[in-house]
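Posting for a labmate who doesn't have an account.
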Amino acid sequence: WLLKDRVIQGVHSLHTIYMRKLCQEIQLRTMEKNTLLFCQGEVGKEFLVILHGAVDLFIQFSKRKEMNVLWCHSDEYFEAFPTHEVRRDYLSGYLGQLLMTLSQPKTEFGEMSLLSKGGVRNTSAVVSQQSTLLIVPDAIYQVTLRRAHAEKLEHQAKMDFLRACVICDGWREAMISQVSYMLVRRSYPRQT
């Protein structure tokens, strides 16, 4: 079902050996509302996909992220309950501002911190309703899905570059996409 339903993007391009490894290590977890998945500033440890349910992403704009991470693992957090189901006051107060709610099935998140060694989470994530998540541990992600996600991000960056170029103004998306595959990223020293 993982391959047939294309639950994870890029999985169709995996070699059989890596697909088998991914299927052996992948976890399905049902989580209750208000379960903390990770905190902003933590080192990323897993890649997640929503099968059903919803996850809220919070962002702390403060420069003191370490305080946020410490609070996320305190007894105060685990004993806290929202005063109002919709507002989730205690979460927005401590975890920062609600950035977005991910609720579409097959929505992937958590990969950005896994793309660089020791990468940290840019947001905090909390389950906002009972949800079933597909979880891929970092070690498995690195040998199976990392390359596909890195290529996807690189392709998107190239397309954004072309959209910003005046010479490409008026091009159709299909043309921009095709040309973006031919672009090569190079850095040159100044004044060359």
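Reply:
Got it, the structure tokens are right above this. DSSP finds seven helices and six strands in the chain.
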